[in-house]
Design brief:
With 188 residues, the protein is an all-alpha fold. Helix content is 71%, strand content 0%. The chain is built from 7 helices and no strands. The longest helix has 29 residues.
Length: 188
């Protein structure tokens, strides 16, 4: 009976995935929330781009909705809360307002995801449009109540239009990223 003297140097294959595989999975899981947070920071920075901060609510709502439907593990409730809190801190909203509204949007999207996955893109866009409109007006109401001052309505209408208009290109980019995350190997 021969014993291999180098067997103790070989990694044990039964111990689970390698560190590189676990890090890869973690990076894939954190990508949607991380990119959303990065977009918030970039658009909030003084860049000279006119209206950059006006894009924030629509982009974040579209991102939270898309990833909550198609990859809810990557856009989980704690991630949505942190993204919303970052929005509150950067956008100077009362703490928790954006986080609360984004968590509501996430909850509705995650709860109805299986029904939404069976719909055409146009119908999903309509559903997002209704939810984004409700979310923007809820933000307006909460900020008005908490500041004890009726906020102007024109920015809310603008945010609704931006959110509805930004969803199709964001969904196209998200679909491409979702396919790359799910199947990173090139197809031959």
């Amino acid at each position: 009976m021969s014993v291999d003297p180098y067997s103790h140097w070989r990694p044990d294959q039964s111990s689970g995935p390698a560190l590189a595989q676990r890090l890869d999975r973690l990076a894939r899981r954190l990508l949607p929330g991380g990119v959303t947070a990065l977009v918030i920071v970039i658009l909030a920075a003084p860049s000279g781009i006119p209206g950059a901060t006006a894009l924030l609510p629509g982009l974040v709502m579209a991102s939270v909705f898309f990833w909550s439907v198609w990859r809810p593990a990557s856009m989980s409730a704690p991630v949505v809360f942190l993204v919303g809190l970052l929005m509150d801190l950067i956008g100077f909203a009362p703490p928790g307002v954006d986080a609360f509204v984004l968590l509501l949007l996430h909850g509705i999207a995650a709860h109805t995801r299986f029904g939404l996955m069976g719909l055409s893109f146009l119908m999903v866009w309509v559903v997002f449009s209704v939810l984004a409109t409700a979310a923007c007006w809820l933000l307006w109401l909460l900020i008005s109540v908490l500041s004890l001052n009726a906020m102007p309505m024109a920015p809310t209408v603008f945010e609704v239009l931006l959110a509805v208009g930004i969803y199709p290109p964001l969904a196209a980019a998200g679909t491409w990223a979702h396919r790359r995350i799910s199947n990173p190997e090139p197809q031959s």
